[in-house]
Amino acid sequence: MQVTETQADGLKRAFRVVVSAADLDAKADARLNELKGQVKLNGFRPGKVPTAHLKRVYGKSVYSEVIEQTVNETNGKLVEEHGFKLALQPKVKLSDGQQGETLLDGGKDLAYDVELEILPKIELSNFKDIAIEKLVVDVSDAEVDETIQRIADSNRPFATKEGAAETGDRVTIDFTGYVDGEKFPGGEGENIDVLLGSKGFIPGFEEQLVGAVAGESRTLQVTFPETYAAKELAGKAATFEVTVKSVDAAGPIAIDDEFAKTLGQESLDKLKETVRGRITQEHAGAARQKVKRALLDALDAAHRFDVPEGLVEQEFAGVWGRVQEDLAGQNRTFADEGTTEEEARQDYRRIAERRVRLGLVLAEIGERNNIQVSDDEVTRAVVERARQFPGQEQQVWDYYRRTPEALASVRAPLFEEKVVDFLLELANVTEKTVTKEELYKEEDDEKAA
Q: What are the PPIase FKBP-type domain coordinates in residue numbering (predicted)?
């Protein structure tokens, strides 16, 4: 076998490989001898089929198998001998004149070119030099009371009232919608409850029902939002013919131990404790996302190296596909977003490159520090996902069990979170108490990222 390096440019390597016909023929003969005791051909006893006859019957398929095996083995040795870590699978191209079946008859050298894209060598920074602020929010009694009040409002009893509907009342309606004078799918409903002021319908719909009385018919003029899910309706003007069936007013509700018991809590104090714990958990999740973003920004700034173009292209293709789907779903263009397609491509390519670089850094950190995700952890995560689909748990479980790519999509975020936890233990993390509004405020740079 002859191997000649033909390219060594950055992270790209290329080699010319020639395997002699003698080596291929020897491997093919060995494989044919193995088949002697396995195949059954009419007129021959098991194990007594002449090699020449086997070659006539199975020669092409055997040579195809030998060539594929030889290419894989040769590429594997090449990678091992050079100490390469591959970013992607090798690209193999047979030399001119060796396409089709010219190699499958035997007696010819195998010559091919192989292109490799390798992972860069990463020099990790000192993680103890990373300084990060962790935002902390103290859950106030007022926030707990406000949350319980919202729960109470959503559980208020309603009773039929005389007179006109007001904001806060519930009206029950039948309606038929028209766009350009034609009915549209999903534009009809009967005995639909509308809570006035809840903003649960198209903008302007609820407001035009204020003042209506039971038995009254009204014509409502509204416009679907530009971001409406059904893109065929997005931005369209619509008319709704509405009949008010009844008007109900919200009754009083006492926030006490009895109310808490209707929610499965033994007392109001216990309900407040539960609500406080849930709010604390929500704030902790938001704070975690911010501190993780800060950590990733610090890692990105501290590690500058070339990334494999193939990985960037793959990542960009996924990101760009989702961007185009989102725009199409919202019936929007790049101009609506205040940019051009070319500018957007450049921005999202930078995002793809950042993701690849950070992924390589996190993988390197995990490998050097033996951070692993156990099969039990993956199983628990799959079970949690399956629980999100009541009645279809077994189908979801079977899908992940049969689909390695899907299972990898579960393992990857678990690994990332483990590496992030490891780094936060080493980094200089200081806590800063802020308000709820400050915690959830999205800065322009965060939106861009």
A: 168-250
